Amino acid sequence: MLPNSIYKYLIDLRKNNNRDWFHANKAQYNQAKKDFELFVELSIQQIKHIDPSVTGNNAKDCVFRIFRDVRFSNDKRPYKTNFGAFIARGGRKSRYGGYYIHIEPEQCFLGGGCYMPEAKILKAIREEIYHHPEEFKSIVENSQFVNHYPELYGEKLKTAPRGYPKDFEHIQLLNYKHYAVSKAISDDIVTSDKFPLAIHEAFEILHPLNQFLNDIIEDL
C-alpha cells in the first residue's frame, strides 16, 4: 500500500506552499520522499515483469524533483503538490516510452507513452503510423485499451502535419503532439491494497503502445 505519510504531506504542502513552511517541515518531506521512493522501487519490480526494458532502473533515476521551475511561470509557488515517477529505460529523462505514476490527492493518475517527444522522434512516430496505420490502430482501438485509455493525451494539430496529405484516411492519428495516455485513479484505490493491482492492469494494457513507440525510437 502507498504509505499514509505521502498523502498527509502533500495535503499539508498544498495548504502551505512556501519556503518557510517547507524548511520548517523538512523532516516530514524527507519521510514522505523516502516512502514514495520505496513504493516506486516496488513498482519497478512489478513493471519489469510486464516490460523487461525497465530493468536496471532505481527509484532515484525515475522520481521527479518536488521543486518547481518558476522562472517563466506566473505561478510562483515553489513546490509541486504531487510526487511523480517516470519508469522507462534511462529513467525520468528518457526519450523512450515508459510508465508514469502521479500521486496527488484528488488528482492521482497512471499513464505513459511519449510525452513531449523531441521533433525527430515525433516525426518518426508519425511516419511509422502513416505507413502502418492498422498496426497502430490495433493497439489504441483495442477494446481493453480503450476501456483504460479512451483517447490519446493532449492537444492536436488543427490541420495535417507538414508533409502529409490532408486526405489521408487516418490523418487524425498523425495530428497528435504527444503519443501518451493517462487514466485517473481514485483516492480510495490509491490508498488501498488494490493500488498495485491497478498499476499492473493499467501498465500491462499500456505495454503494447510503449513497445510500438520504442521499436521506432531504437532505430533512430
Automatic annotation (TrEMBL):
Pfam family, one: DUF2461
Protein name (Swiss-Prot/TrEMBL): DUF2461 domain-containing protein
Annotated InterPro entries: CHP02453, UCP028451
